[in-house]
Structures are given as C-alpha cells and as structure tokens.
C-alpha cells in the first residue's frame, strides 16, 4: 500500500490504537482522516517520534470500547494546518481526560476553526471544556453534541461577552448545543450569553469601537425538549425578542 501517497483515509476497525498510529505514521500526505479506534486500557509508553501531518485539514476520531485512556492518541499528533476537529467518545468506561495533553495538542494545531465534541454517557468536565476553548483562539464553529454531563451554566456563561473583559473564542459565530441536562442549564444564562453577541447592523453602526467578538450567525439548541419545557415560555419570549431585528439564524 502506497501510504505516503494517500490524502484521504478512513480507519474503521482500529481495535489496537497503537496499530492505527503505526498506519497513520506512514500517511504523511493526509488532508482528511477519519479514525475509529479503541482507547487504551492502560497508559502506553510514549512514542519516540511525533506524527506530524503538515497538510491535514480535517480530523475525525471516534473512540470505542472499554479503554478509558484516549489522550495518548492526540499526544503523538501534530497538525499545524488542521481546520476541523471532531471527537466522539463512545467508550464504555470512565473517560480519562487530560487537560495538559489536550492543550499541548491544541498548541500543535493552532488554526482549528471548527470543533465538534460528542460525549454521550462519557463526561468531560465543564472546566476542561472551558480550558479547551481558552486555547482555541481561531474557533468560529463549536458543536457540543449529546454532552449532557458537560454542558452547564458555567460553560455557557464563559461564552458571554462582557465589555472590557478579554473574550473567550472571540471569532465564534456558530454554536450548536444538543441534549442539555435540565438540571445544569438556566434560561437566564442562555439568554444573556446569546444577547451578549448579537447586534443589528444599526446598533453596530452607532458604536465608535466595534465589539471584540464576532456576532452570532447561527445558534442551534436541539434535542433539549425537557430543558425548554422547564425553562418555559419566558425563555422563548426572550429569544424571540432577541431575534427580532437581528441578523443571523436561530433554531430550537
């Protein structure tokens, strides 16, 4: 197999994560990669050589099985041109998230504009997601899909723009949040965060200094029937009021 010539690869039966890394190490010309692998049951030894993908633009990784250790995969990857990153954690045991390893990976992939994370029953702590956003200065699209144990008021509040305070992910303009837990999310925080990054053209024209963040283009709040039922009509009225006369798109 001429691995070095491949620009697009899908590895869908990676029961051995080390074997998957061995294959990818030979694919130096990759532009797109989708990998389905099992996590490690115990931490593996560090590899002697970093896997550097100079041309890689899109990376999708799905972690399956019982192995809770997933960070060793990202710990060995450098992708300076990476634009889109999708992480799906479908592991059956407690996910072992490592802030330092993920931050180090982000520093080796500083140009990511699209980040999609799916956790299901696994849990990435809310403060770990906030740390990840802190190191994603180029981010424009954020999707937290089926992350009921990770999305909470603290995370949503971190996206709220406050004048004079250095903003988190200043270029973010598209946000998707699905399957939020009704015990973790409040109408007030959702509404204030949406409002803080939403202006009409007229409002922007009146400002002497433009806002330090991008305004929302698209917001999707899906699959959270219980949440919206609990939040009630006041939340819907608030969202409708914000949407009136403003640019962009909101879905719920």
Structural topology:
Blueprint: E1 8-14, H1 17-24, E2 32-38, E3 51-52, E4 58-64, H2 71-75, E5 77-78, E6 84-89, H3 99-108, E7 114-118, H4 126-134, E8 141-145, H5 153-158, E9 174-178, H6 187-196, H7 201-205, E10 218-222, H8 225-231, H9 233-243, E11 249-251
Parallel strand pairs: 1-2, 2-4, 3-5, 4-6, 6-7, 7-8, 8-9, 9-10, 10-11
Helix pairs in contact: 6-9
Characterization of the model:
The chain is α/β, with parallel strands linked by helices and 252 residues long. It has 2 domains: 111 residues, no CATH class; 140 residues, Leucine-rich repeat, LRR (right-handed beta-alpha superhelix), CATH 3.80.10. Helix content is 28%, strand content 21%. The protein has a 9-stranded parallel beta sheet, with helices on one face. α1 links the parallel β1 and β2. The longest helix has 11 residues. The chain is globular. The model has no long low-confidence stretch (mean pLDDT 86). InterPro entries: LRR_dom_sf (IPR032675).
Number of helical elements:
9
Compute the number of structural domains: 2
How many E-type strands? 11
Q: Determine the fraction of residues in helical runs and give it as a percent range.
A: 25-40%
CATH topology description of the largest domain:
Leucine-rich repeat, LRR (right-handed beta-alpha superhelix)
The SS-based structural class is alpha/beta
Beta-strand residue fraction: 15-25%
Would you state the CATH class of the largest domain?
A: Alpha Beta
Rounded mean pLDDT is: 86
